[in-house]
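Quick entry, no commentary yet.
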Amino acid sequence: MSFTEFIEESKKVVLSALDSLDYPKPPNIEWAEPPEKEYGDLSFRIGFQLSKQVRKKPSDVASEIARKANEALAETKYIASIEAHPSGFLNFKLKQDSFYSQVLRIAIKDGYGKIGIGEGKRILVEHTSVNPSGALHIGHMRNVAIGDSLARIFAFASYAVQVLNYIDDSGLQVADVVVGMKYLGFSEEAPAGTKYDHYARTPVYVEVTKKYDQDSSLFQKRELILKQIEDHDPAIIEFVFRVTDRILKEQLKTCWRFGAYYDLLVYESDIIGTHLWSNLFEDLKNRGIARLETEGKLAGCWVVTVKGESEGEDKVLVRSNGVATYVAKDTPFAALKMGLIKDNFYYSQYLVQPNGKQLWRTMTSGGETNQSPVPWNPEKALTPIDDRQARLQRIIQYILSQLANQNMEDRYVHVGYAIVSLSQKTAQLLGINEDREETVEKHIITMAGRKGIFIYGDDAMDALKTRAMEETLKRHPDSKDSSWLDHVSEKIAISALRFSLLKQDLDKVIVFDLEESLRLVGETGPYLLYTYARASSIIGKSSEGQESPEAESFGGLLKNESETDLGKLISKFSIAVEKSVRMIAPKWVAHYSYDLCEAFNKFYESNRVLQEPDLELRKARLMLVLAVRNVLQESLGLLGIEVLEKI
């Protein structure tokens, strides 16, 4: 039972009235909630939609529809009244007794809020996809949070979702790390106690990028290494695979800690090794999609020209020296995902993840099977990549459209998002050197990976966990259960980071503030966990709540504003899920979760629950608490936030 059923019943009554009045039917009946509660629970702007067609005032149209619709009112299940407003809106009020009884009866069950719009259609979500050249920083963590949450939300909406992680083990950053270890004296082994991916990023990668300014000969060494990797030169390839594998496994540990898991790792070196790119490149040339520049600064380069896109070097597929660019390397994987080229991979089981899910990887040969564990050619492929790559993604979409002879923009979807910056206070707390004018603007620290100005995802989670531990100990000074304290602090830290990365519009720059994200009041992950724990505490203290009584008549007992507002919000969970799916944005579930917590705390502060003397009303309110607890667990789960029974 959801608010959507009330909307659909209201639409059905209106459509029947339109038939009786011989009025045209609009393609979509637009709905909203009235600005004032006295007008009802639902509003259609049908008077405005039909006014010009029937040549009547909006108010007259609405009045006629209301008069005819009211004739069928007795047959409706959830509509208490239908009234026309002088402005031309049609307002509906709920039958609160039957509606809230049904909501409470169903909302306490597992899976409440699931919707079937996916109908089993296949979705591929590719996220993380960080070069195995160093640890994930907090900007990468936004990618992980968005991708993982979208995968969870689409699965909840009945899509068949599988998650990919693209391993760019043959790019510039990997070559930079190899340069450091082969030519600048950095050991292949990390110092004792240092996480290997941290060591690879700092000092190796950061120091190597500084050395390029001092020794131009290093560029030639990097180009040589890139060519050796592309050619799978035995002199270097085993070393590269060994180092990148160690880095990758540490990256995965960070992602698992964050709650993200995968189905398949796709290696760029395997795309090269199985000739996916070389075969596709020949096809692009033969079909005229790629062309050779013969003059100007790009002479000798193979380029693709996209109508409507400005000219620039990022249209280059292959440079004059024969080295493929980023867009060229990304295109064969995109084409493979969409079923536009043949799959030449072999596949092998890589490892079992902490959640028990088997993780597979691509291989150039051998392996266990040549059948992909992830079927290609889905109905839609989602690829979260920050907005700085938007042009490259449009070029890839264009190439895919040319290959498929159809527009692929709705199937191959770039989920763009803005970067993550740091508050100046957080940067100082974590020891980030912001004494660089180009990185500081309005007390915001812009991260710069090549300059070493960033916060590792691991360090952000550790810092949040330390602060969470301090606050938890204040609340439980006599606690002797160190494992419980560690678990609670860890989950609070993850909730703080995840929610701060998901609650904003995707196109808004996030200014991450460590202390702000940990607040127990306001729009934060810990506040949501605290609210869930409060609801759990109420249920735990009540035998009536634990019995989960049927709610056939409880809806009629919930009459005050805080009760009905909360009940109505519970019924709108599926609407938030559907909106996140249609808008491809987790923020709608995040906002819903916060709104539900706000409504619950308002209800709890103004109503007695355990102390309510009226037994039936006490049971009704406990049912309301049970429903909130269950729905909040579901909604937070879609954000990758694990609930806590006690904080």
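second:
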Amino acid sequence: MPNYLSHIIPFFKRIGLAFLVFTLCRISFYIVNAAHFSNVSITDFIYGIRFDAVAISYLYLPFIVMSVIPFSFRSFRRYQRTLAILFYIPNTISIILNLVDVAYFDFTLKRTTTDLFSMIGVGGGADFIKLLPNYIIDFWYDYILLAFLIWFSWYIYKKYCRYKGMFYPYVRKNYLIQSSIFVLTIGLLIIGIRGGIQLRPLSIVSAGQFTIAQNTPILLSTPFTVLKTLVKKKAKVIHYFSDEEIADIFNPEVTIKGNGILKDKNVVFIIIESLAKEYVGFLNDGNGYTPFLDSLMKNSFVFTNAYANGQKSIESLPSILTGIPQLMATPFVVSNYAGNTIRGLPQLLKEKGYNTSFYHAGSNGTMGFDAFSKIAGVSDYYGLNEYPEKNKEKDYDGLWGIFDEPYLQYYANELNAKKEPFFSTIFTISSHHPYTIPKQHIGKFPKGLMGMHSVIGYTDYALKKFFETAQKMPWFNNTLFVVVADHSTHSIAPKYNTPLGRFAIPIFFYDPSQQLKGTYNEIYNQIDLTPSVLGLLGINTKLITFGKNIFNSSNNESFSINYINEVYQIYSENYLLFFDGETVTDFYSIEKDVLLQTNLILQPSKLTKEEIILKNKLEQKIKGIVQQYNNRLIFNQLSTTNFPKK
């Protein structure tokens, strides 16, 4: 073997091992989460290698450079040991990050980014430590995979990738050859960091160029998405349209003119953790795990086509309480713009004399709920710290906070002490992994086909007991109850595992006086809640909201908007359009293609004239929304009281 190959061959074997480990992690990710993907092909895995190259180029940078520097001391045993350490450290980090999403993807339906660490940093750290033993038990296979892959990579490295050459001093020819190899490798490294020789480096959104939207998480790897979001991305000023044009395309400056049929009523928001639409029998021909909610919805105003605007609890509050959707990678609550001035529903009602409060059965500070609720205008926040000490130990679930049943009973009595009119929000916690139910209720609720089903049954029971208590209170008949899920989660039916279906949730208004009753079958979002409630209460005001007041007949345009894997999606008029910030990447007819199998962008001949017009219209709409969203974030214009003087 020529001397110049004695180092380069082990080096390429080691890099090959890094790619092999990433591929094994991707295969494991797919096997565990296969239900979330459709029409997966071998090309999805092949294209994924390009994204792996980016992560490997970054993580293994010191190892790569030190492996090819053109000096003879690379042959020393101590130097080779150092190289081994420089390989094992990023290799272990890569395995750990990749395996996070083998288990966690089922909860978030996207590859993990640095927002996970941001959430832990806003009160979630203690929760994470408490839950770690449960994660180890419930996701035992992940830890077996972790141990196997670390052992496997160590074994392959030791057996097949070791340097077996001898030390020899370099002569001029050696330096020339080794220097050429060094320069070539650095060039390849730069190409690897960029993910190819294309004009722009690969980003998270780039995955959509190589597969259907639903399958982009297969191409991506968690090390890649974490690296790409290490620095909190700031919104970019956007100029798709001029100032004159944008106002006609989309204008979030809304004047509320409602019918006021529920004028001066109290308002109670019940935000239910992880309540997917699939779990609710009323919305699925009687097949579900919520018998009480089903009965309540029969006497309510129900949104049969409702969607969340985020994927996690931390993303839900701005949408629900202020009408601001989650349209960036970092949750608004922990973003650079969390300090922006906003006038949410609590603030607007407080200005009208409402007592405002927020109750959360979890630890104070979790998900930044306490801080954000204050920003939104809530006067009083109550968390685990405020729960009565005499009951805390027996009612504590041991992990997240107070079980739903006792906390909802406590909440009902708390409302009894509020001065009317009041606006109050409660955020439940029991319908969540690790699916804990109080001992006295174990076995009472259908187990269903997944762990979530039994805890949804428990939460439904807890809500039944709450309403039984609340209806005895003097304020009950004068109160509008708004029931909404914070986000969706695990589902079984294929239609709920598409990029649209994974945001489907229940939303309904319950008015005990029965002045408001029926169904609304058009598209409805969490961001529509603030303007709609203001309309029902007859509060005429101006506000910044990306939602609509459905009780104003002049506004009949309905759409749902989301942001996932750095791609915007808008659903309107039975069509779903994906926009990556520059171009439309996907366009689907939901009526004809509920599982999103046929991307009409790739088959333009199938587009009718009407569909082309609609596609262009939705593209204009999404651009207008994104421009308004980004620019108002940057210039702190999310409140009608905070505009710069003209």
